[in-house]
Write a structure and sequence with these properties.
single chain, 156 residues, mainly beta, six-stranded antiparallel barrel, 8 strands, globular
């Protein structure tokens, strides 16, 4: 992870760099650490709740339409919007890379939210609406999914 780069062009940490030690929460016993994120990863909100109902995260993935995100299959929802590199200290109108409403969801119809083999299909894509003639990928870059390109085209 220390040598990873993001699609927005951020440079990897220098060789020999080590990640800071994790802090353990006394209350929960969960280890975690905040990091500044990358701009192609963001938060999904329900727009009918004045952008206060965060329900999942998503990532912009490389696509011909330049407007595709990948998230968990259980994250589908009406009136959803993607906020790249969401900053909780800013208002909805001041998010650094805008707010991108979901246009259409794509999920395997065999997905099941149980312990069956079909629960492995817990992923979904969504196309995003343009923002002032711009596509999300043009603004924040995109990650490359680790699956054959023809698999993505099936969803489009």
């Amino acid at each position: 992870m220390a040598s990873a780069t993001d699609p927005s062009g951020r440079i990897a940490q220098p060789q020999g760099w080590t990640a800071p030690r994790r802090k353990q929460s006394v209350a929960t016993g969960i280890n975690g650490e905040h990091f500044d994120s990358i701009k192609s990863v963001g938060t999904l909100f329900t727009t009918t709740s004045d952008m206060k109902a965060h329900h999942c995260t998503a990532s912009v993935v490389r696509s011909p339409g330049r407007n595709l995100i990948l998230t968990a299959g259980h994250c589908l929802g009406r009136n959803a919007a993607f906020v790249p590199k969401y900053d909780h200290t800013k208002s909805a109108g001041d998010q650094p890379y805008g707010i991108w409403p979901v246009d259409e969801w794509f999920r395997d119809s065999q997905y099941a939210s149980d312990r069956s083999a079909n629960s492995d299909l817990d992923f979904a894509f969504a196309s995003l609406k343009e923002d002032g003639g711009r596509n999300a990928q043009d603004v924040v870059g995109a990650n490359t999914p680790h699956m054959p390109a023809q698999s993505i085209c099936i969803w489009l």
